[in-house]
Write a structure and sequence with these properties.
Layout (H helix, E strand, L loop, with lengths): L2 E2 L5 E3 H8 L5 H9 E2 L7 H24 L3 E4 L5 E4 L4 E4 L3 E5 L2 E8 L8 H14 L7 E8 L5 E4 L6 H15 L10 H4 L25
Parallel strand pairs: 2-6, 8-9
Antiparallel strand pairs: 1-3, 4-7, 5-6, 7-8, 9-10
């Protein structure tokens, strides 16, 4: 069974993004931030396929950026941790490009466009200058790169409004708080959650039967 972590809750930006983008089960992020547990990979084959597609997408985008004169760093080189009074929030942007006077943080998405895509890039624009001193002197923008090469969305620092920052901070406080939020299990969210049934007996394991209508 899971055990409580020592120290401050540890939150990944990807968890925040899914919840701010519409996912409902805040409990899952609260549990993962505050516990050590055996991960349950029900969708291991899907995850492997996603990793291959994502790696290829970012390889192609990196080559394109380098041809345009960007100096590019990848995931682990871009890792950051922002520690506040109540929690640590961490992330690993896929790519950061730098050239004179400018910087571009790229987040790759292999699926269809979702509301949650926007939020990690907003947080990167806030967090990265805190971690990397050189980014404080460069004009930093964000980019969401989709599977189709020409499908991109630009995200600017001006889009991280006080209202959106307040949403992020409020969610971090709930996830790092002492009280567990209510569980909201669903087929959609449980199938991509790595908290297994021994730690979450309410986990939805398979698609419910379809009701029969009169039409």
């Amino acid at each position: 069974m899971a055990t409580r972590k020592s120290g401050k809750p540890y939150i990944w930006t990807t968890w925040l993004a899914k919840l701010l983008g519409g996912n409902q089960c805040v409990w899952s992020a609260w549990f993962k931030a505050q516990h050590r547990y055996d991960k349950y990979e029900e969708q291991a084959l899907d995850l492997a396929q996603w990793n291959r597609e994502h790696t290829d997408l970012m390889r192609r985008r990196r080559l394109e950026m380098e041809r345009e004169g960007w100096s590019v760093t990848e995931e682990n080189q871009n890792a950051f941790k922002v520690e506040g009074p109540e929690a640590v929030v961490a992330g690993k942007p896929d790519l950061i490009g730098r050239r004179p006077g400018m910087a571009l943080v790229v987040d790759g998405k292999t699926g269809r466009e979702r509301a949650s895509d926007y939020w990690p890039v907003l947080f990167y624009l806030y967090a990265l200058p805190k971690q990397f001193a050189d980014l404080r002197t460069l004009a930093l923008e964000g980019e969401i790169q989709y599977r189709r090469g020409d499908q991109r969305l630009t995200v600017t620092p001006a889009e991280l409004t006080p209202e959106r920052m307040a949403q992020i901070v409020a969610l971090i406080r709930v996830i790092s708080g002492p009280t567990a939020p209510a569980k909201v299990p669903s087929v959609h969210e449980c199938r991509t959650c790595n908290i297994g049934p021994k730690d979450c007996p309410e986990r939805v394991r398979e698609q419910r039967a379809v009701a029969v209508g009169e039409w």
